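Study the following:
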Amino acid sequence: MLAPRELHRPATSPEETRQRILQATRELFAKKGRRGTTTREIAERAGVNEATLFRHFGNKEALSLACAQHFCGTVELQGLIATLSGNLEVDLLTIAQALIGRLESVRDLILMSLAEEDEDGTHVGDQAWRAPAAIHSIVTEYLTQWTKRGELKGDPRVLARYFMGSIFAHVIGRKKMPLDLQLTQEQYLTFLVDAFLHGVRSKFEQ
């Protein structure tokens, strides 16, 4: 059984309490899964009582969604998109670097959620999957502007799924299919962006 945190000091603010609960949720979900984790365990690990947890998040389902949203980096990616250079190849590499960094940081959570996938293909706590869906929407919106200009071809939603899926597959499968080549992460992502653009670009450079 996982031991609760030794630190039980009072939170200095409601936001600190919320952050402690989210961090405790993230740690327990990664180790025990959503199914195997109780709100009581989360509260103990965060150094609060269950009543405080429910006051902040309402129920376990809402807490799961809040945890996914907090750690998936939606806000950060939205801010990054607003600062891009306007060079498609450079911008896609920047987005890829942001996505792979975020996926690496929550890889343990992803693996646990995949392990909890039901036989019929549904997931425990499907609401939590709204967070990756939000990331997909952001990337779709970015790619839409390039399809409207005629620089890219295809449905932006499919393009975003393909682009993100390539990064997802690398993060999740890297230990099962390790690269023997001496490539840095940036070199690999540069190759990924190049392969993506050569497949979906409407106008190829001569």
